[in-house]
Design a protein that fits this description.
By secondary structure, the chain is mainly alpha-helical. The protein has helices spanning 16-22, 25-28, 32-48, 54-72, 85-97, 99-102, 111-147, 167-192, 211-217, 227-232, 235-261, 289-312, 327-350, 355-360, 368-376, 382-398, 409-415, 423-427, 430-436, 445-456, and strands at 152-157, 160-166, 194-195, 222-223, 269-270, 352-353. Helix 4 packs across helix 5 and helix 11 (235-261) runs parallel beside helix 13 (327-350). It binds arginine. The site of arginine has 10 residues, from helix 7. GO terms for molecular function: argininosuccinate lyase activity. Belongs to the lyase 1 family. Argininosuccinate lyase subfamily.
């Protein structure tokens, strides 16, 4: 009967609870394809060394192909003793091609370099997929920004009305975060994409395997050179979860804005029914659950990062079983991030913008800075104009008129004689206010379109 991979020195069986506690198969089986691919290339490397003959190699590759089909058709039969994906695939290979030949595939290899290799292949693949859907999300941002360029809204600081901006400008503020996520992701993929294969358990390969060959066959860009590091380095796991944490943080802030904007008090946006839920008690309710989950799940991804950092801290050299704890938080983070990108894409591409509500939320006092700038253009120092404009705001308050734009020219001139006839047309116009901010990165139409085209170039 089949002996466990490491059973030679053992006499007693394992405590059944310990077997469960020890097994990673329930969650690492999703790396089946990476594991088979790794073994395929590794055995080709052994063949190059003369450690496998042509027949043995072709049998192994045939067997690996059969196993892949079984996994893909959901017919791989799992056994009680399958400790992890590596032991399960090797057990199955023995059943298909016979243990005589299957027993040779692990020559010079350890599950330590094997699991590190599998994970890097798997994570690389997931991150490439994430990159693709992230670009799709970004393209929704820029398309909306283009189409809805004319919509004006209040911009906030401290969540208090500050200055008028374009809705598109607000959208692109989040797209800008996502652009740096995209760039960071590309750099991350490069660091994930290094091969630990051919390092054995820790000390290196005793038959001089061609690690460069293994790496290039597996699509890696280079090696994790030092064999001790290669088997124990999980920085790529940490970095992936950090990447996810920061990305989710961006989605979380974006969601928070939209949750506020979707309240009846704001009414700036309406979420599509497809991304909302109702209340079991209050018939009138329409809740932004999608956004709340995007906001809430950022905590979960960061929690995984923090937890695994604690696991890594103080681990002694090379492989320790603690490292098996990398998988669940990592896989959970990858799934959470992917799902969140898809949900955010759905939410953003279906929500309705209430341009008139946004416009109605603009108030003339949001133009107080523009009023100050009006006098700056007449040569008055800004510090002075700031005070003058403040005095105008106060006057409007004292006179209980509904905004600084309701003051007559005489009243304005009572504060400062340099206000002229043109003040009304020049200052009290939201569109003009926005259009004056035309330096790079500003909220004027031209500056927003410039942002759109900068982002488009990256997609
Ligand atoms: N399932 C293990 C893990 O995920 C594979 C490596 C086992 N290596 C060992 N020396 N026990 O880390």
């Amino acid at each position: 009967d089949f002996k466990s991979l490491w059973g030679g020195r053992f006499t007693g069986g394992m405590d059944p609870l310990m077997a469960l506690y020890n097994a990673s198969f329930p969650y690492d089986k999703k790396m089946y394809a990476a594991d088979l691919e790794g073994t395929k290339v590794y055995t080709a490397g052994l063949h190059k060394l003369g450690l496998l003959n042509d027949y043995e190699l072709s049998e192994i590759h045939r067997g690996l192909g059969v196993i892949l089909k079984e996994w893909e058709s959901n017919s791989f039969e799992e056994k009680q003793d399958d400790e992890d994906i590596h032991t399960a695939n090797e057990r199955r290979l023995g059943e298909i091609i016979g243990r005589e030949i299957a027993g040779k595939v692990h020559t010079g290899r350890s599950r330590n370099d094997q699991v590190a290799t599998d994970m890097r292949i798997y994570v690389r693949e997931q991150l490439i997929e994430i990159k693709k859907i992230l670009k799709e999300l970004l393209s929704v941002f820029v398309s909306r920004a283009e189409v809805e360029i004319d919509v004006l809204m209040p911009g906030y600081t401290h969540l208090q009305r500050a200055q008028p901006i374009r809705w598109s400008h607000w959208l692109l503020s989040y797209a800008t975060y996502l652009v740096s996520d995209l760039q960071r992701l590309e750099q991350l993929i490069d660091r994930v994409n290094l091969s630990p294969l051919g390092c054995g358990a820790l000390a290196g390969h005793p038959y001089g395997i061609d690690r460069e060959y293994l790496a290039s066959e597996l699509g890696f860009n280079g090696l994790v050179t030092n064999s001790l590091t290669a088997v124990s380095d999980r920085d790529f796991v940490v970095e992936t979860m950090f990447w996810g944490s920061l990305f989710m943080n961006h989605l979380s802030r974006f969601s928070e804005d939209m949750i506020i904007y979707s309240t009846a008090e704001f009414g700036f946006i309406d979420l599509a029914d497809a991304y909302s839920t109702g209340s079991s008690l209050m018939p009138q309710k329409k809740n932004p659950d999608s956004l709340e989950l995007l906001r809430g799940k950022s905590g979960r991804v960061f929690g995984g990062l923090a937890g695994f950092m604690m696991t890594l801290k103080s681990l002694p050299s090379t492989y320790d079983k603690d490292l098996q704890e990398d998988k669940e938080p990592l896989f959970d983070a990858l799934t959470t991030v992917s799902h969140s990108i898809l949900i955010a894409t759905g939410v953003l591409s279906t929500l309705k913008v209430n341009a008139d509500k946004m416009l109605a939320a603009l108030t003339p006092d949001m133009l107080a800075t523009d009023l100050a700038d009006y006098l700056v253009r007449k040569g008055v120092p800004f510090r002075e104009t700031h005070h003058i404009s403040g005095a105008v705001v106060r006057l409007a308050e004292v006179m209980a008129v509904r905004g600084i734009d309701k003051l007559s020219l005489e009243e304005l001139q009572s504060v400062d004689a340099r206000f002229g006839e043109d003040v009304r047309g020049e200052v009290f116009d939201y569109e003009k206010s926005v259009e004056r901010r035309n330096a790079i990165g500003g909220t004027a139409k031209s500056a927003v379109f410039d942002q759109v085209s900068r982002i488009r170039k990256l997609l």
